[in-house]
Amino acid sequence: MDIFALIPQFGGLIWTIAAFVLALSVIVAIHEYGHYIVGRWSGIHADVFSIGFGPVLWSRVDRRGTQWQIAALPFGGYVKFAGDANAASGKDEEVMAAAEADPKRLRATMHGAPLWARAATVAAGPIFNFVLSIIVFAAVVATSGVSRDPLTVGDLRPLPVEARGLQVGDEVIGVNGVPVPSMEDAEAYATFIDGLPLEPLLDYTVRREGSQRVVPGAYLLPPLVSGVSPQSAAMGAGLEVDDVIIAVDGDPIFAFDQLKERVEGGDGAPLALRVWRGGDEIDVTLTPKRVDEPQRDGGFVTQWRIGIAGGLAFEPATETPGIGEALASGVQQTGRIIEGSLSGLAHMITGAISTCNLSGPIGIAQTSGAMASQGAQSFIWFIAVLSTAVGLLNLFPVPALDGGHLVFYAYEAVAGKPPSDRALRVLMSIGLATVLTLMVFALANDIFCP
């Protein structure tokens, strides 16, 4: 195996590691701070707040007696509360025995606090991850804006077309005589796009300076690169945002659907692309990859993909949404990630899609570096996506994870007493073994999956 193939082309190993450590550190800090602050509010004392594991590189003790530290291995973190024997919140028998004689001291331990306080403290970590995601998604929507209705030309993209009748500020009310529906009506908009005639130039009915006129313009959805997916064939081939693909295997194209049809119908064969980039033409050869894509009905479809996103022939004008609208969008985006993750996991378990869809630390590091190379907004968006995934993973009912602890607390609430210490030790050992097995499996995917 060529181990250097694991190093992304966008900047080398150091850049990849730095982006990965930064992304993971932010997510871990938010997660652990959720545990810490809700524990503090609930009257549980934190002995240690650590970002990373292993040898301590820096530490300080605050006025409440909590040691804040950064450790050498930046692959996680933990809050060790009073009464905990380790980072997994195992019970320290000696500390708990000593605290039995002092009700105030006992109340300040993790294992002597009321059930509601322990449950709230444990649940706070994943919840803070979700809150981070919602805030980031909402902030991106607020700063980027939402498309104005009616569809309005905000800026003209550089395209290899001769006729350009559209101008900034034009309100596009029809294309080839068909009214343009609101982009918020996904079904009507998709029907409108599917009904466009496949012609290089279309007639746009626009409202300009209070009057309507018909002007020529490029096909509404040209084979334009508006985004490049990490670890994709397009990224490996060096495709860039604003590239326009004008030919596939020597055959001219002018619509994104033409490109999509050639990619999906090529059965994974290499494709020779002619790319228009800022007035110059370059030749690129790439090989599509098989991708399991989630569908609206919760299923998955396996397709050949090169890893690019398309866009309109012009940049739509946007307007700033209200705080409520932005937050609602953040909640919806976080919900979609959770739903897609659970659906993907279920389909992997049943064998409907490949288990290679599960990435490990190498894959996440590669994606971190790739997103960072595309700019701050892309990287911050990726942090939000990863934060949702981390929050969801920690809620799985596996001992040693937050979800496992919540299951123990649910049992205690129903049975009136916690599981025995012996049962907890056995279950925690099983949970830890499960987590380690999953990590090894994901790492193997990074190395051996195509």
What tags apply to this protein structure?
450 residues, 12 helices, 4-stranded antiparallel β-sheet, elongated
What would your notes on this structure say?
This protein has 450 residues and is an alpha+beta fold. The chain has helices at 12-41, 93-99, 103-107, 115-144, 186-194, 233-237, 256-264, 323-350, 361-373, 376-394, 402-415, 421-448, and strands at residues 46-61, 67-81, 146-147, 153-156, 171-175, 178-179, 201-208, 211-218, 227-228, 244-248, 251-252, 271-277, 280-286, 289-294, 300-305, 308-309, 314-316, 318-319. The protein has a four-stranded antiparallel beta sheet, with no helix packed on it. Strands 11-10-12-13 form a four-stranded antiparallel beta sheet. Helix 1 packs across helix 9 (361-373) and helix 1 (12-41) crosses helix 10 (376-394).
Present the secondary structure layout.
Blueprint lengths: L11 H30 L4 E16 L5 E15 L11 H7 L3 H5 L7 H30 L1 E2 L5 E4 L14 E5 L2 E2 L6 H9 L6 E8 L2 E8 L8 E2 L4 H5 L6 E5 L2 E2 L3 H9 L6 E7 L2 E7 L2 E6 L5 E6 L2 E2 L4 E3 L1 E2 L3 H28 L10 H13 L2 H19 L7 H14 L5 H28 L2
Antiparallel strand pairs: 1-2, 3-18, 4-17, 5-6, 5-7, 7-8, 9-16, 10-11, 10-12, 12-13, 14-15
